[in-house]
Amino acid sequence: MLNYLADGLLLLGGFFAFSGSLGILRFPDFFSRLHPAGTSDTLGQLLILGGLSLRVLLDSPDAGLSVGKLIAISLLLFITTPASTHAISRVAHLAGLKPWTGEANNDGEATDE
Amino acid sequence: MNVELITALLVIGGAFLALIRAVKGPTTYDRVLAVNVFGTKTVLLLALLGYIGDRTGFLDIAVLYALINFLATIALLRFVETRRLT
């Protein structure tokens, strides 16, 4: 039963990791690209590392060190990913980059930058 | 085909898409953002490959890579903002 839970967590995390990158590639503007980069990356790493630590714990119950390292990576990324996204958006805003308010063409790209 | 391998392939695909944005990106901030996302995907891929290949030493590399990725993003942003690294 817990095996299936770990499988589901891993697949859902992989889906979020892929769709976040798809959003970064497809969104029309820098400030809109911040959204998939910040949110889906955080959720994706949480799900993938959670499922992986559950799988490691199910495979060998005495692998406490590996699970501790996985939780440490997850906590680290949980703090640093939103912090770096915020830093990038702050620097871009202070440098005078304006949010785009125009129309998109058929490819989803911004028509006038 | 087991689940860890499928997840690793999805993460590799995501890293490739972020790399396309890093090459294409109109502004410097797009490139910094894409490189940051690529680093996060690399950490995830290292953890997954450590489980698939049964090498626990990969987790230490993943911890180091997460730290270096954050520091590199902040250093790049400081360089872009002030054109100095001190």
Describe this structure in words.
The complex is a heterodimer of chains A (113) and B (86). By secondary structure, chain A is mainly alpha-helical. Chain A has one domain. Chain A has helices spanning 2-26, 30-59, 64-94. The longest helix of chain A has 31 residues, at 64-94. Chain A is elongated. The model of chain A has no long low-confidence stretch (mean pLDDT 87). Chain B is mainly α and 86 residues long. Chain B is built from three helices and no strands. Chain B has helices at 3-24, 28-52, 57-82. Chain B is flat and about 45 Å long. The chains are: A mainly alpha (113), B mainly alpha (86). At the A-B interface, helix 1, helix 2 and helix 3 of A face helix 1, helix 2 and helix 3 of B.
Descriptors:
heterodimer; A: 113 residues; mainly alpha; 3 helices; 76% helix; elongated; B: 86 residues; flat
DSSP strand tally of chain A = 0
Alpha-carbon Rg of chain B, integer: 15 Å
The major pleated sheet of chain A works out as:
none
Overall pLDDT metric of chain B: 90
Q: What are the secondary-structure elements of chain A, in order, as H or E? A: HHH
- How much beta of chain B, percentage-wise? under 5%
Number of domains of chain B: 1
Order of helices and strands of chain B: HHH
Largest sheet of chain B: none
Contiguous low-pLDDT stretches of chain B (5 residues minimum) are none
Shape of chain B: flat
Shape of chain A: elongated
Which two protein chains have the largest interface (Cβ within 8 Å of the partner's Cβ), and how many residues from each? A-B, 48 and 46 residues
Task: Please tell me the total number of domains of chain A.
Answer: 1
Number of helices of chain B: 3
pLDDT below 50 for ≥5 consecutive residues: which ranges of chain A? none
Helix-strand makeup class of chain A? mainly alpha
Brief sketch in words of this structure:
With 113 residues, chain A is mainly alpha-helical. Chain A is 76% helix and 0% strand.
